[in-house]
Amino acid sequence: MKERTNAFGQPVGPALPGWTPRPPPPRSALTGRYCRLEPVEARHAPDLFAAFSQAPDDRDWTYLMAERPATEAALRESLANLSTSADPMHFAILCTDSGKPVGTAALMRIEPKHGVIEIGSITYSPRLKRTRAGTEAMYLFMRLAFDDLGYRRYEWKCDSLNAPSRSAAQRYGFSFEGIFRQSVVYKGRSRDTAWYSIIAEEWPRVRAAFDAWLDPGNFDADGRQRRDLKSLRASLR
């Protein structure tokens, strides 16, 4: 693409004719084949607490801003507070087969003016990890951002030491952009933050790979995937 310049001969970015600020995400449910996303409410506490309690220790919370709630009452209070927040906007992730919440995630750093939105505070219980519902939840958030709301950039950030989160970002199709050194202080320690993103031009291929992966035909009789997300994206180049 030919480089654009202004009247002074300086290079400038691509024009965006007709661009208008994007709407903020609505506080409403999103339904897929394997999961349903609902704005968090205190009523989700009993089932979420039971799901989180299946983890044998607190290692899943090491890189989160919060600690695992010690009691159902503490979780209920936390969810009640989160339910009033527009940014971050927290959602409970419910498995379709049980109808019960088994994890949470949030849309955050929402910038309608620039068309930028982030997914974060991703908290998967053992019941949600490595499931079709867990993958579909991420897909539903992306589809809302790009297809329904018209955002241009979808971000994922995590502690640079959080290897599982970094691996998940790459699996879902995010591109690594770099490390922001000493960007956050949390839990009494310093964090270097790894930045990832998907931009609008990349979304059609990412979406097509998700659609193919989530198709029931991609799984054998024992529920094992036939093709993984990475190979599906590669085949769509």
Explain this structure:
- It is built from 6 helices and 10 strands; from the N terminus they run E-E-E-E-H-H-E-E-E-H-E-H-E-E-H-H.
- By secondary structure, the protein is of the alpha+beta class.
- The strands form 2 sheets. The protein has an 8-stranded mixed beta sheet with strand order 3-4-5-6-7-8-10-9.
- The longest helix has 17 residues.
- It is globular, with a radius of gyration of 19 Å.
- The mean pLDDT is 97.
CATH topology: Aminopeptidase
CATH class: Alpha Beta
Indicate the proportion of strand residues: 25-35%
Helix and strand run:
EEEEHHEEEHEHEEHH
Q: Give the mean pLDDT.
A: 97
Level-2 CATH architecture: 3-Layer(aba) Sandwich
Task: Note the topology.
Blueprint lengths: L3 E2 L5 E2 L17 E2 L3 E5 L5 H8 L19 H11 L6 E7 L5 E11 L4 E9 L7 H17 L4 E7 L3 H10 L2 E12 L2 E11 L3 H12 L14 H7 L2
Parallel strand pairs: 7-8
Antiparallel strand pairs: 1-2, 3-4, 4-5, 5-6, 6-7, 8-10, 9-10
Q: How would you sum up this structure in a few lines?
A:
The chain is an alpha+beta fold.
Keywords:
about 240 residues; Aminopeptidase; eight-stranded mixed sheet; two-stranded antiparallel sheet; 6 helices; globular
